[in-house]
Design brief:
- This protein is α/β, with parallel strands linked by helices.
- The protein folds into two domains: 104 residues, ATPase, nucleotide binding domain (Nucleotidyltransferase, domain 5, 2-Layer Sandwich); 110 residues, Nucleotidyltransferase, domain 5, CATH 3.30.420.40.
- Helix content is 37%, strand content 25%.
- It has eight helices and 16 strands.
- α1 crosses α2.
- Bound molecules: beta-D-glucopyranose (BGC).
- The site of beta-D-glucopyranose has 15 residues, from α3.
Amino acid sequence: MELLGIDIGGSGIKGAIVNTETGEFITERHRIPTPDPSTPYAVAEVIAEMTHYFNYSGMIGCTFPAIVKNGITLSAANVDKGWIGIDAKALLEDVTGCQICLLNDADAAGIAEFRFGAGKSVPHGVVIVLTFGTGIGSAIFVNGTLVPNTEFGHMELKGVDAELYAADSARKAEALSWKKWAKRVTRYLERLEALFSPDLFIIGGGVSKKHDKFIPFIEVKTPTVPTTLLNDSGIIGATLAAEQELLLDEQRRLIQFRETNASTPSTHQ
Ligand code: BGC
């Protein structure tokens, strides 16, 4: 399938049309800065603009940097608080006229890594995908199955929300060297190790392009690798989730069709 994927981030909203069989972009990536303030309506207008830019009318896979359950956004750590508790899926469907599959950004990144990236060779065990950017996103997979909305970025670490201490934004704000920042990331990963005994950490997010600058300084027992899809994993994973939803819709329709036909008495003798 060829589906539009959109990744809503704290600083930019990025989109591309993706071939879901290969995970490749079939258009250039288009980026629009995230409006400030990032209120629901301002962001929704950018999503409509993005859809228009690609002249697109099918289902859209869309990520959001917060907890997302059944289309409702339930938190807003790095976006406008107006998102908390609203039916974001309905809002985005209204402005675009397209069906929207909405999910957490790190969950989307993890789904893509599992299908096409660093996770594809690890179908068993516990794998934790982390994205380091404005915040810290997390996705945990148990034998390849995602447990959504884990929000490990908000664990307490050094007396604060972990992402205030170890996100890439903390490195930038405090002008930390890569080595110093990697020490903080190590502390954070050690905490996750103690809680989950994972088999693999996959590190992605905005910082993933620079992985050679900090991954060598990370000292944990668990193998730790960079994402192979870099910062495109959110867009790709969003389209994979959308494809899954379309397939499920089709299955439901088929079951309904069979049930209706089975219960309709035949007019022929
Ligand atoms: C949010 C998560 C999100 C992460 C990365 C955190 O602040 O709570 O939902 O996945 O940032 O964007």
